[in-house]
Amino acid sequence: MLTLADGVRGRRVAVTGGGVVGLLTALFARRHGAAEVVVVDPTPRRRAAATALGLTAADPEAGDLAVELKTRWRHGPGDRGADVVFQCRGRSSDLALALRLLRPRGTVVDLAFYPDGARDVRLGEEFHHNGLTVRCAQIGRVPRGTAHAWDRERLSAETVDLLRAEHDAVTRHLITTCVPFEDPPALLADLAARRTHVLQAVFTF
Question: What protein family is recorded (predicted)?
Fold first, then answer.
Protein backbone atom coordinates (compact mmCIF):
# COMPACT_ATOMS: atom_id res chain seq x y z
CA MET A 1 0.00 0.00 0.00
CA LEU A 2 1.28 3.46 -0.85
CA THR A 3 2.29 5.61 2.13
CA LEU A 4 3.62 9.13 2.58
CA ALA A 5 6.91 7.59 3.64
CA ASP A 6 7.50 6.20 0.15
CA GLY A 7 8.75 9.56 -1.12
CA VAL A 8 10.93 10.61 1.81
CA ARG A 9 12.02 7.61 3.88
CA GLY A 10 15.80 7.60 4.25
CA ARG A 11 16.16 10.63 1.96
CA ARG A 12 17.71 14.03 2.45
CA VAL A 13 14.98 16.62 2.12
CA ALA A 14 15.08 20.40 1.75
CA VAL A 15 12.02 22.62 2.14
CA THR A 16 12.22 26.09 0.59
CA GLY A 17 9.85 28.39 2.45
CA GLY A 18 9.34 28.41 6.20
CA GLY A 19 5.73 29.51 6.35
CA VAL A 20 3.01 27.27 7.75
CA VAL A 21 2.84 25.13 4.60
CA GLY A 22 6.62 24.68 4.53
CA LEU A 23 6.91 23.89 8.23
CA LEU A 24 4.07 21.37 8.15
CA THR A 25 5.61 19.78 5.05
CA ALA A 26 8.93 19.51 6.89
CA LEU A 27 7.18 17.89 9.87
CA PHE A 28 5.49 15.41 7.55
CA ALA A 29 8.86 14.52 5.99
CA ARG A 30 10.49 14.03 9.38
CA ARG A 31 7.56 12.00 10.73
CA HIS A 32 7.72 9.67 7.74
CA GLY A 33 11.38 8.84 8.00
CA ALA A 34 13.42 11.43 6.09
CA ALA A 35 17.12 11.04 6.92
CA GLU A 36 17.44 14.81 7.36
CA VAL A 37 15.20 17.82 6.76
CA VAL A 38 16.47 21.37 6.21
CA VAL A 39 14.06 24.33 6.10
CA VAL A 40 15.31 27.21 3.95
CA ASP A 41 13.97 30.72 4.57
CA PRO A 42 15.50 34.21 4.76
CA THR A 43 13.16 35.36 7.57
CA PRO A 44 14.74 35.01 11.04
CA ARG A 45 11.41 34.38 12.80
CA ARG A 46 10.53 31.58 10.42
CA ARG A 47 13.93 29.98 10.87
CA ALA A 48 13.48 30.32 14.64
CA ALA A 49 10.13 28.53 14.39
CA ALA A 50 11.74 25.72 12.38
CA THR A 51 14.48 25.34 14.97
CA ALA A 52 11.93 25.35 17.80
CA LEU A 53 10.15 22.49 16.02
CA GLY A 54 13.38 20.51 16.09
CA LEU A 55 14.16 21.05 12.41
CA THR A 56 17.37 22.32 10.84
CA ALA A 57 17.04 25.86 9.46
CA ALA A 58 19.19 27.57 6.84
CA ASP A 59 19.41 31.17 5.62
CA PRO A 60 19.68 31.26 1.81
CA GLU A 61 21.15 34.75 1.98
CA ALA A 62 24.05 33.80 4.28
CA GLY A 63 26.10 32.20 1.50
CA ASP A 64 25.76 29.74 -1.35
CA LEU A 65 23.42 27.21 0.20
CA ALA A 66 23.62 24.90 -2.81
CA VAL A 67 27.36 24.54 -2.31
CA GLU A 68 26.88 24.04 1.44
CA LEU A 69 24.26 21.29 1.14
CA LYS A 70 26.02 19.57 -1.75
CA THR A 71 29.19 19.49 0.31
CA ARG A 72 27.27 17.99 3.23
CA TRP A 73 25.02 15.62 1.29
CA ARG A 74 27.43 13.49 -0.75
CA HIS A 75 26.07 10.34 -2.34
CA GLY A 76 29.04 9.49 -4.57
CA PRO A 77 31.38 10.99 -7.17
CA GLY A 78 29.51 13.73 -9.01
CA ASP A 79 26.36 12.96 -7.01
CA ARG A 80 25.59 15.49 -4.29
CA GLY A 81 22.60 17.38 -2.97
CA ALA A 82 19.04 16.88 -1.81
CA ASP A 83 17.05 13.86 -2.96
CA VAL A 84 13.87 15.92 -2.98
CA VAL A 85 13.04 19.58 -2.41
CA PHE A 86 9.56 20.75 -1.44
CA GLN A 87 9.17 24.29 -2.84
CA CYS A 88 6.69 26.15 -0.62
CA ARG A 89 7.44 29.82 -1.32
CA GLY A 90 5.72 31.68 -4.15
CA ARG A 91 8.80 33.29 -5.60
CA SER A 92 10.50 32.06 -8.73
CA SER A 93 13.92 32.72 -7.17
CA ASP A 94 13.10 30.01 -4.62
CA LEU A 95 12.19 27.56 -7.38
CA ALA A 96 15.53 28.36 -9.01
CA LEU A 97 17.26 27.70 -5.68
CA ALA A 98 15.32 24.46 -5.21
CA LEU A 99 16.66 23.18 -8.54
CA ARG A 100 20.21 24.10 -7.52
CA LEU A 101 19.88 22.17 -4.23
CA LEU A 102 19.06 18.86 -5.93
CA ARG A 103 21.33 15.94 -6.68
CA PRO A 104 21.31 14.66 -10.28
CA ARG A 105 17.90 13.24 -11.23
CA GLY A 106 16.37 14.69 -8.06
CA THR A 107 12.85 16.07 -7.82
CA VAL A 108 11.29 19.38 -6.83
CA VAL A 109 7.74 19.02 -5.54
CA ASP A 110 6.32 22.49 -6.10
CA LEU A 111 3.54 23.58 -3.75
CA ALA A 112 3.85 27.27 -4.64
CA PHE A 113 2.07 29.57 -7.09
CA TYR A 114 3.77 32.26 -9.18
CA PRO A 115 1.41 35.13 -10.01
CA ASP A 116 4.24 37.01 -11.76
CA GLY A 117 5.54 34.00 -13.68
CA ALA A 118 8.92 32.36 -13.09
CA ARG A 119 11.47 34.68 -14.67
CA ASP A 120 14.29 33.61 -12.34
CA VAL A 121 14.15 29.96 -13.37
CA ARG A 122 16.92 28.96 -15.78
CA LEU A 123 16.11 25.61 -17.34
CA GLY A 124 19.35 25.47 -19.31
CA GLU A 125 21.47 24.91 -16.21
CA GLU A 126 20.90 22.40 -13.37
CA PHE A 127 17.51 21.36 -14.73
CA HIS A 128 18.84 20.26 -18.12
CA HIS A 129 22.31 19.04 -17.21
CA ASN A 130 21.28 17.09 -14.09
CA GLY A 131 18.08 15.57 -15.48
CA LEU A 132 15.87 17.10 -12.79
CA THR A 133 12.12 16.75 -12.35
CA VAL A 134 9.56 19.36 -11.25
CA ARG A 135 6.23 18.04 -9.96
CA CYS A 136 3.24 20.28 -9.33
CA ALA A 137 1.47 19.63 -6.02
CA GLN A 138 -1.40 22.10 -5.91
CA ILE A 139 -4.25 21.64 -3.42
CA GLY A 140 -6.81 18.99 -4.32
CA ARG A 141 -4.62 16.95 -6.66
CA VAL A 142 -2.82 13.66 -6.31
CA PRO A 143 -0.48 12.14 -8.92
CA ARG A 144 -2.15 10.27 -11.78
CA GLY A 145 -2.51 6.63 -10.88
CA THR A 146 -2.68 7.16 -7.11
CA ALA A 147 -6.18 8.63 -6.77
CA HIS A 148 -7.54 5.20 -5.84
CA ALA A 149 -5.22 5.15 -2.80
CA TRP A 150 -5.30 8.81 -1.78
CA ASP A 151 -8.83 10.12 -1.48
CA ARG A 152 -9.71 13.21 0.55
CA GLU A 153 -10.58 11.12 3.62
CA ARG A 154 -7.18 9.42 3.75
CA LEU A 155 -5.31 12.69 3.14
CA SER A 156 -7.30 14.32 5.95
CA ALA A 157 -6.55 11.40 8.27
CA GLU A 158 -2.80 11.82 7.67
CA THR A 159 -3.08 15.52 8.55
CA VAL A 160 -5.02 14.78 11.73
CA ASP A 161 -2.44 12.16 12.74
CA LEU A 162 0.38 14.68 12.26
CA LEU A 163 -1.40 17.36 14.28
CA ARG A 164 -2.12 14.89 17.08
CA ALA A 165 1.53 13.85 17.19
CA GLU A 166 2.89 17.40 17.00
CA HIS A 167 0.04 19.22 18.77
CA ASP A 168 2.03 20.92 21.51
CA ALA A 169 4.85 22.07 19.23
CA VAL A 170 2.50 23.27 16.49
CA THR A 171 0.36 25.19 18.97
CA ARG A 172 3.39 26.77 20.62
CA HIS A 173 5.51 27.64 17.59
CA LEU A 174 3.27 27.93 14.51
CA ILE A 175 0.39 29.94 15.98
CA THR A 176 2.00 33.32 16.58
CA THR A 177 -1.06 35.58 16.78
CA CYS A 178 -4.50 35.29 18.40
CA VAL A 179 -7.01 38.08 17.75
CA PRO A 180 -10.70 38.49 18.62
CA PHE A 181 -13.02 37.54 15.78
CA GLU A 182 -14.19 41.12 15.37
CA ASP A 183 -10.65 42.47 14.83
CA PRO A 184 -9.42 40.84 11.57
CA PRO A 185 -9.61 44.09 9.52
CA ALA A 186 -6.98 45.72 11.75
CA LEU A 187 -4.72 42.67 11.54
CA LEU A 188 -5.05 42.48 7.76
CA ALA A 189 -4.26 46.20 7.46
CA ASP A 190 -1.12 45.72 9.57
CA LEU A 191 -0.06 42.75 7.44
CA ALA A 192 -0.66 44.63 4.18
CA ALA A 193 1.41 47.58 5.46
CA ARG A 194 4.12 45.20 6.79
CA ARG A 195 3.75 46.60 10.30
CA THR A 196 3.59 43.10 11.76
CA HIS A 197 4.78 39.60 10.95
CA VAL A 198 2.44 36.65 11.46
CA LEU A 199 3.24 33.00 10.92
CA GLN A 200 -0.28 31.77 11.64
CA ALA A 201 -3.13 33.85 13.05
CA VAL A 202 -6.09 32.35 14.90
CA PHE A 203 -9.36 34.20 15.46
CA THR A 204 -10.83 33.76 18.92
CA PHE A 205 -14.49 33.93 19.94
Answer: Belongs to the zinc-containing alcohol dehydrogenase family.
